[in-house]
Fold these 3 entries.
Entry 1:
Amino acid sequence: MLKAIIVDDEARARRILENYIKDYCPQVQILAIVEDVPSAIIAINAFNPDIVFLDIEMPTFNGFQLLDSIDNIAFEIIFTTAYSEYALKAFQVSAIDYLLKPIQVNQLIAAVKKVEKIQGSSMLQERLKTLQQNLVDYKVKKIVVPMSEGSLFVELKEIIYLKAEGSYVHLFFKDGTKILVSKNIKDYEDQLTNNEGFFRTHRSFLVNADFVNKISSDGTEAILTNGSLITISRERKQEFISFMKGKYQPLLSETN
């Protein structure tokens, strides 16, 4: 049984979440329901919860200020938020669970199941730090990469490109190292393209535009600063060239 506390300043939001948990998450026992940060601190110290369902935007003190006031966070957090779709990227790449208001039952069930799986080995402090960094100006700066021995916290500016290999992805870094991750490249594409400066040039490649040095004269390859050749598919060629023109003017010189 997972012990839980709900923290939200809106009475209706508290009531809906409480009812959903009781109806659809029988493995969760709600020990306290509070409306502000001071009450939440008291409840956390009193009940030692496994999960805190935490609203971010609250009067006087917000959810992050609650976390800053706790020296050793020994519980998992599921944020409840009305953040914009773009800002939610920060949660996704930081491996922090959230429930977007109005809360959907299937999302709640999935979030609770995830807590059950990672409980006790979640590196929560590091993930929260990454989240707070990524929420500055709603700009993703760092991602959490799952590893067999835990999690790796990677700055986007260190990644040159990603290459798919079946259901795995190789990440190549500017220091010459690379790692293999058990994750689909589509997941990274959804998180990093457009506003984060990455582009899916081919089904197998996701490239950091900052490391593109040249584009071949026929537009089928990108030459990166480390000398790597990245394939550009025919159907994505024009879109990639337009992307580079929009991001860097003038377009990087083409090879002969």
Note: The chain has two domains: 2-137, 154-247.
Entry 2:
Amino acid sequence: MAAFKATSAQERVIMGIDPGTKAMGYGIVRLCSQHLEILQLGVIHLSKYAHQAQKLHTIWEGLHQLVEDFAPDEVALEAPFYGKNIQSTLKLGRAQGVAMAVALSKGIPIVEYAPRKVKQAITGNGNASKEQVATMLRRQFSLEELPSLLDATDALAVAVCHAWQRQAPARGKAKNWASFIAAHPERVKQS
């Protein structure tokens, strides 16, 4: 497959990654002016591998292939949360490190976002559930159905959050909700 590439200086391809040790979600979007388009959405399945080294190798190969196919200009990762189980946190950190290494090996800039920031950007609520995030993305992109694993929509949310952060100075010019809505009709779902 030939590498997908952004066609203009205003166009950016962003890969969002939701690191995981059972499934690693990815979402790839194209940002052109104010328009976002999903290019690819899915997960790298890892639960079938018994050993951590196999999982890390699978992450490397899967993300490397996606980088080759879509040539992202930027990678946005969900920062790991810190749980009570130190072993799980360490394994998650390794998975994130491999994802970062893939991007760094190709000279792609990396940005991290806290899970609360991503949820806040997508739903307006930093404590939103995975299902709420997925539902908002389904509406925004008019998706007919959601992936069976919400790691994919979590990764898409990271990419979308990053795309909106890139546009923050332009969005910040709105004086009130009416002017914001007029400037960004794609962000409002009509019922």
Note: The domain at 11-187 is CATH 3.30.420.10 (Nucleotidyltransferase; domain 5).
Entry 3:
Amino acid sequence: MKRPTAPHAEVLIETPQWRAALGNIDQFVQRICSTTQRYSGIFSEGATGPSFVFSDNRHVQQLNARFRGKNKPTNVLTFEPLSSLHGGDIVMAYQTMQKEAAIAGKTLRAHTAHLIVHGLLHLAGHDHHHPGEARQMETLETFILRRMGFPDPWRQRPRRST
């Protein structure tokens, strides 16, 4: 049985640094959605695509405080669909993600791809509250990312000393 194709994702760029760092963000997001669909079947027939907001720490901190009760920025927030007509939302904070990528010795592009796949899997019902769930989700993330030419996101690379 053929899996449905990934629906078109809406992309909103609130913070210009994202465009400078990632180039054609819409194409980047669509490729990740399509590859995630190909290997995990996260979208059902007729599903609406998710919305992606490429934002900054200030905006993500406001959302995190309002919806999670944590008054601090975080890398990404995933919001479940409000109805079957909506595909959910994934909101990313530029400064936090850039800092995490640098600390881990990864490119911002690879780190962003990982967190997009991670968010998509959350929207599809995957979770990581228990060790078995976490291992399964991490394995699927790694598999999908490697198919797109990205390294294992769970392997930390040592930082170069200067």
Note: Strands lie at 10-13, 51-55, 76-79, 89-93.
